[in-house]
Amino acid sequence: MPVSVPVGGGAVDDVAVEAAEAAGGAAAEAAGGAAAEAAGGAAVEGVAVEHVEVRRGEYHDSVTLMLAGRAVAGVAGAERVLVAMATELNVALLAELGYSAQGHSTLADIGPADLIVAFTCPSAPSESAALEALTTSLTPTAASTSPPGGPITAPGHPHPDQAGNPAPRTTATALGRTGAPITLISTPGLASVTEAMESLEYGASPIIFSDNIPIEYEVRLKDEARRRGLLVMGPDCGTVVLHGTGLGFANVTRPGPISLVAASGTGAQQLMALLDAAGAGIRHCLGVGGRDLTEQVAGRSTLAALTALAEDPETDLITVVSKPPHPTIAARIKAHAATLPKPVHFAFVGPDHPTLTESAERILTALGHAAPPHWPHWPPPTTPREEDTTTGRAPARARATTIRGLFSGGTLRAEAEAALLRAGARKIDRQASGGWGEGESKRLPTPDADDDAGALDAAAARTPAAVAEAGRAHAGNAGTAAAAADQAEAAHTHAGNAGTALATADVSRAGTARTLTTSTGTALGATDADQAEAAHTHSADAGSPADMAAALPAAANSGLSHAPTAAAVAFDLTDFGDDAYTRGRPHPMIDNTLRLRAVADAGGDAGVGVLLLDVVLGRGAHADPAGEVAAAIAGVRRVRPEVAVVVSLCGTGGDPQGLVRQAEALAGAGAWVFLSNAEAAEAAAVLARGGVPRGAVDRH
Predict the structure, then answer these.
(1) What angle do CA 627, 631, 636 make, to 5 degrees?
(2) Is the pTM of this model over 0.85?
(3) 190-200 average pLDDT score
(4) Per-position DSSP letters for 213-233, written without gaps between them
(5) Which one of 394, 465, 479, 699 is at 20 to 30 Å from 36 when CA atoms are compared?
(6) Are strands 644-650 and 608-616 parallel, antiparallel or unpaired?
């Protein structure tokens, strides 16, 4: 039952306010789904209204809810908006926004299958407008159920709009009509296992975008794929490129002879971005899921993908990208690679391995390319030293030496950790330092976390009100995702019926669909590549794969710093793409809400001297991430100008967000911006020691 609470001054009055049930609050059936309609009769005209309701058993995917929250937040005066499934993380967010179970009995005994709708607005009419916007956003329409690329039927099949021929409602029906060789699956957790198995039974290789799948099911799926001569890409497979066309999170790269096997989505994106900047092109990137090279999964998909790519006549060089695999599995993969007729490079991320930037240089050398003297980077308009000498301003307060890293990419976080350790920095306990935690949030309990009410209070006490308020403003009405509608609609193109999309000839406006088949029977759906037209000015040169380990720099500061001090540097890094943060929420590459809160929190922590962030561009990602992140950076630096901010910007000149435009927006807010993630981490260490990164004097 929805509850509308009149609230004086737009804030909760714990003494005077009594919850009043909305008059006429019976649920109404909306076209295509149940949408509870709340009349605001209990609200007082001209007095702020707090609307909280729980819709039991009403499920929507996270992208749909992100758009719905955006629609509600777009109503004049709507604040403290949360439209989300009642996962443990989202319930904690609800409490942080000021909606308590004590004040709202409807919040008792809610679970992940229930929908939460909460917002505050200035009047009863605005409450009605917000609910109308919500209902419209959650109600399927003919336009929203018809993919932008066209009908999901192959040529020769009846159009689903024809009488007596409804659109397919299951993966099996869709595959039966189309014979598509690929499915892209994005359904919650275990639900994706059924869809993936059905795909295999119909001869299609599934791309499983979904995470939170037990590892034993992953093994079963991959064994079934091997038996049928197919390939399972995933689970938790965020990036796939087929014939230059990206599925999921993918950068727009120039076509070329390099193919990747990726157990790391953002690792693959970083490598592709660097290669593209140097003038090299990508043929395929086959994601295999982040657990494929663990001992239990044993590289099942990696082995199949290597074989498929080795038999592709237009692939000249293969690279395997991953966090460090299990040693036994690594040996097995390398032994298999040695039997293939094409060179295979290994780009493993970790303290004892080359950085992805160094790996990119090795690949370029193997292909006969010249290395860029410097990878692209964008310094802020003025450095701290320039401000002191050219503006007459008093020097900023001394900078603290702790680096707080807030990442959307797990491999980018892992590479940053390796680079910081190599630079002599010390990893500290995230909970003790006030950080959010590698996979568990100090402030927002996860299913594996203990009750952290005391920690929540401590964090609130630590954060200055000015920074907290700035953070709320930059986060878009506290908890509402602000991703653009066109990007979300693209996600829904892949989501198809029941969350499953078919990669057919219409994917990414590509050319004729075809199948890449190996002698072992592995079939991969593919499309002709889009031609990226952006101009690229960098070329590259580096050493050979044989001496990768020998090329590890003795110190990460080489060429980056100017007279750094010997100050002790510590760091804590968080991956907001971890499963703990994505249950019931969009990935942080789509929804910046949690990270923007963390930026504001870090800005209010006197122990933090450097903020290290990543921003990932490409299709499927936020339409303008720099717009939100730059505003949050500027908010922190207004309150604490001594805080340095470093951004690892992963993208290409062909990406729809615009690489240079995004970089200039971030640099304009005061950040040091690097295309190379490793160089970004190294620069953070330099800044934490009081030095100045290379970009201060070597400007592009």
Answers:
(1) 150
(2) no
(3) 93
(4) --HHHHHHHHHHHHHHT---B
(5) 479
(6) parallel
